[in-house]
Every structure is written in structure tokens, then in C-alpha cells.
Amino acid sequence: MLIKKEYTGKYLLFSILSILAASGNMGVIYLINRVIDNYFSGTQLLYYRYMMLFGGALILFFVCRSLAARSIINFTQKLLRKTRMEMIRMVLRSSYAPVIREKARIFSALTRDTDNVVNASVNIVDIFTNSIVIIICFVFMGQLSIKLLGCMLVLLCFTLAIYFYSERMARKLFIAAMARYDVFVKYVNEILSGFKEIVVERKKGMSIVEKHIETAINDVSALNQQAQIKFLTNRIIGQMGFYVFIGSLLLFLGAYMGIEKSVVINFIFLILYIWGPIETVVLLIPNLSQARISLQRITDLEKKISEFESDKEQRRVYTGFNNLLFNNIMYQYRTEDDPADQLFCIGPVDFNIRQGEIIFISGGNGSGKTTFINILIGLFAAHEGEIILDGDKVEISQLQDYRSLFATVFNDFHLFDELYGIELIDPLLMEEYLQVMELDHKITFNGEKFSSTNMSAGQRKRLALIAAVMEKKPILVLDEFGADQDPRFKRRFYNEILELLRSKGFTIIMITHDEQYYHCADKLFRMENGQLSPVVYKKDSQILSVGLS
Ligand SMILES: Nc1ncnc2c1ncn2[C@@H]1O[C@H](COP(=O)(O)OP(=O)(O)OP(=O)(O)O)[C@@H](O)[C@H]1O
After folding, report:
1. In terms of Cα–Cα distance, which of 363, 367, 315 is closest to 346?
2. Which end of the chain is more exposed for a tag (fewer CB within 10 A), N or C?
3. Where is the ABC transmembrane type-1 domain (predicted)?
């Protein structure tokens, strides 16, 4: 449904205003008709009366048309804003994987598809009011001559039949064009995300453009062109039909049917007038066609990105925990096309964290560490097994609450320009962390954001860690934090900062390859081909850390 029930009142108001404007317009036409009649019959005109009525009709048209236009513009903008906000909120509520998968479609939905749907919902009002004008004109025409009206309706039905047939063909072209537009958006994102690499080697950018963007843009424009041309050709055919009808009416049809000249002139005048509203309706049909497709796409997208959605709102925020237990947890990547297609699998994993522990996870590339972390923090819902938090099983519907246990610094972290989502920031604590992370000489914090985030990769990662600890979540999850740090700071980080964070109440889980610091962990695990096992770590023939789950 392009029109939402909650806005019925608004649409009704627009329709009434538009109908009143159309009545003013029709009044003008009616008066002109009467004047033509009087000319032919030679009756004396009551100029004064006609001028008053003419003025009244014009004022009615002007006032109602302006009011309708203004309210429609305001409403469209409000609806657009509301629809976009609803969609953004839905994206924020959705779980991780579907949103990442549907990025390009989400962008198209937020821009083009919402535009199409909102504009079309208002176009429906235009179509409705113009249809009323057309029907009133038909009544006038019928009063003038039923025979001529019959001819006219046959012509109109014929034109509309061709038009709706071509609309079905054009819709297929619009669907294909929109799918190709998603590809265009995807590769524009690719260029923007990898712009650094592209500037170093411009050929990469050109290659993306030549291989994907250019063909996608060409396809979008060719498909839209074909669809629009189908509509345009029919419009021209329809117009030609009406001209032929007017010509034949003037030249022989009127005389052949024995219809009076004044009736013929009046009828032609009405045909010329009715052409405007007919054109409006006909011109809006492609918009409606596109809007129907956009609406379908938005609905499909909503289904896709809410498929694993848990709670609509977060109900509980965990400020602490004692024990987190993973029992027989399994997760398997699946392809979208064929869910039965078996890809990399994690588990079964048994894992136990107690409050205040420092846990390291090591393992080769592609062994499954990041996937495990994603399950641990609730980004991926495990396909089998159970998560027990302080004795209670965490259901999939509670993952939203469960995630409040964690603050993260991912390997490919994103540093937001402000500390979003933190209500009270203690300036003294911030100052302390800036000193601990050796950034106090580089940047300041103004209560909302840092003076700059333009720093080295290692410094940015330290800043991301500050942002994470400021969230005051019970568990800190760090993915290869040491990788970008210089040896001196790395030493301090493992030997001092981890202990400092523990003393502040944090439990820490780290993915790390820094073997020389494995002894800093209470438990060390190794991930191999999706299997997580505790490691007995030896240094100088001494057992330093035993990972026991
Ligand atoms: N979205 C995905 N769909 C299918 N397979 C995936 C997906 N993401 C990762 N994989 C596969 O899962 C396996 C584990 O990947 P993961 O990123 O967890 O490894 P990792 O141990 O963190 O590696 P690295 O140390 O290189 O970061 C890899 O073989 C990878 O190809």
C-alpha cells in the first residue's frame, strides 16, 4: 500500500482542497463554454455577472490550489523525514550480518526508494483529483453529445489499454534498473573505502570504474531509457489519437453524425481542456510503477535486515558479571543463495570467563579467532550450544542485552568523532587514560570529543581503547591491539596497562600473536581450524600460564 492508513485524514484534506481547486478550474471552463454558446446563439451576455463568476472561480482555484500545493509539499517533506528516520532506526536495531550484507541496498532504500514511495503517495492524490476532473468533463461532454462522448471513450479505453500493457513491460525494466543501481552504489562505496589505495595507484580506480561502475551506470540509464521511451511512445500515440479525433470531428465526423457546430466547438474545447488532466494521470503512472517496485524493495529489505532481530529495545544493561560460560557453541558461515552450502565452522567450543580475568587467544590466520570473538560478543548468534551468564541461559532474543557486557577495539576498528552513547564522562578519568596511553601531549578532550583523531595508526588504536574503556563495560575485547604499537609501549601495555585495567574492574579478552607476552594472561587459548583449546605455556622450562576453561 502506497498510502498509509494513519495519513488518511491528510490525504482526504489534500483531495478536498484539490477538488475545490478543480471546481474553480471547471467553473472557468463552464463559463467559457456558456460564452461560446451565447456567441453562437447571439444571446445578449450579462458581462457583469459573468465577470463576477469568472473572478470567483479564479479566486477559488488560486486559494485552494496554493493551499493544496503548500500542504502537500510540507507533508511530503515530513513523511520523507519520518520514513528515513524509521528506516535508520530499523537498521540500528538489526543484527550485524544482514546489515553488512545489504549495505548497498540500505543506501538505495534510504535515498531513492523512500523518495519514490513518498512522492508517489502524494501523486495518488493528484491522480485522484484529476480523475474527478476528467469524470466531470465527461458529464459535460455527455450533456453536449452522447454519441461524441461514446467515440471519445472508445478512443480513451484503447489508449489506456496500450498504456497499461506497456506499464507491465516497463516495470520489468525498472526492476532491472534498480538492481543495477545497487551495483553502482556498491562500487562507489568500494572506491570511497579504498580511496587511499586508489590514489597510490589510480589504475585501480579506473579499473573499478571500467569493470563495474561504467557498465552499471550504462545499464541503469539504458534500462530507464527503454522504460521511459515505452511510456513516451504511448503518450505520443495517445496524443496523436486525440488530434486525429479533433481533426475528424471538425472535418467530417460532426457533420456525418448531424451534430450542431456550436456543440462540436464546445466539445473540442472540452477535449483540449481534458487533455491536461489526462496527461497528468498518464505522466504519473511511471512514478507509481517505480514506487511500487521501491515499496516492494523496502519491504524485502525490512524482512532481510530484521530476520535475526532480537529485542526492539534494549531492556537490561549489564554493569557486571561473575561468570560467563560457553557450552558446546557452534557457528557455521552459510551462503545466502544456498544455506545448506557448508562453509567454515567454529566449534564445538567450551569456554569460561570469570570476572577480572585476562584471557589471550592466539592462532593462525583464518583459524577462526575473529569469528569466535563475534560469537562471544553476540554479533553472531551461535547455531548450536548455549551461553550461560551467571547461571542463566542467554536466549537469542536477549542478545541485545547481553552485548551490553562488552566494549571492543576491533582490529579494523572505527574511531567515531565523538564519544557517542556515553552519558557522563569523568574529565579526570579521561585525563588519566590520556596520560596512560601517552596521548595527553597530543590531544585534549572537550567533554564531548577529542581535539583531533588525525594520528598514527598505533595512536588511533590507543584512542579507540580509551573510547572503549570510557564506556565502562565489564568486559573489554581487544583484537590484536599490540599489532600497531611500538615495542616500548607494547611492553608497557602488557606489563602495566593490562593490570591497571584489571584493577579498574575490567575483564579482558585479547586476540594476540605477541608470544613474548603470553605470560601476562591468566588463561591462554589457541584457535586452530575453528577449535579452541587451552594452552599450557612454557617459558624457560617453567609453566607460566595454563588455559583452563
Ligand atoms: N563472512 C564470511 N563468510 C564465509 N566465510 C568466512 C566469512 N568470514 C570469515 N570466513 C572464513 O572463516 C574462517 C575464519 O575467519 P576469521 O576471520 O575468524 O579468522 P581469524 O583467525 O580471525 O584470522 P586472522 O588472524 O587472519 O584475522 C576463514 O577461513 C574465513 O575465510
Report:
1. 367
2. N
3. 12-290
Burial (Cβ within 10 Å: 0-12, 13-18, ≥19) of residue 70: exposed
CATH (domain of 460) = 3.40.50.300
The alpha carbon of 509 and the centre of ligand 1 are apart by a number of angstroms equal to 19
358 & 497 share domain: yes
* Residues 380 and 374: beta-carbon distance below 8 Å: yes
Average pLDDT over residues 388-401: 89
Q: Is the same domain home to 231 and 202?
A: yes
**Domain tally for the chain?**
2
pLDDT for 336 equals 65
pLDDT of 329 over the 50 cut: yes
pLDDT (tens digit, 9 = 90+) per residue, 438-496? 999 989 988 888 888 888 989 999 999 999 999 999 999 999 998 889 999 999 999 99
> Which CB contacts under 8 angstroms, 24+ apart, belong to 134-138?
134/274, 134/277, 134/278, 134/281, 136/22, 136/26, 137/26, 137/29, 137/270, 137/273, 137/274, 137/277, 138/274
**Phi, psi for residue 350 in degrees, rounded to 5:** -115, 130
| Ligand 1 centroid, distance to 213 Cα (angstroms) | 28
For residue 513 the three cell numbers come to 600473536
Contacts of 76 (CB under 8 A, 6+ apart): 118, 119, 122
Ligand 1 centroid, distance to 366 Cα (angstroms):
5
Indicate whether 282 and 328 sit together in one domain: no
> 338: pLDDT confidence band, cut at 50, 70 and 90?
low
CATH assignment of the domain containing 143: 1.20.1560.10
Residues 341, 285, single domain; the answer is no
pLDDT tier at 99 (50, 70, 90 boundaries)? confident
Closest-CA residue, ligand 1 atom 14, reads 368
- Residue of higher predicted confidence among 216 and 34: 216
Average pLDDT over every residue of 268-291? 83
Domain of residue 262: give its range: 5-304
307 pLDDT band, cuts 50/70/90, is low
Ligand 1 mutation pick, 100, 370, 413, max ligand atoms within 8 A of CB = 370
* Candidate of 333, 362, 408, 514 to mutate for ligand 1, largest count of ligand atoms within 8 Å of Cβ: 333
Nearest Cα residue to atom 1 of ligand 1: 333
Ligand 1 atom closest to Cα of residue 372: 18
If asked whether residues 286 and 354 sit together in one domain, one would say no
Residue ranges around ligand 1 (CB below 6 Å)? 333, 343-344, 363, 365-371, 527
Residue 316 domain-assigned (yes or no): no
Query: Does the predicted model carry a pTM greater than 0.80?
Result: no
Segment 523-542 mean pLDDT: 80
Q: Are residues 296 and 343 in the same domain?
A: no
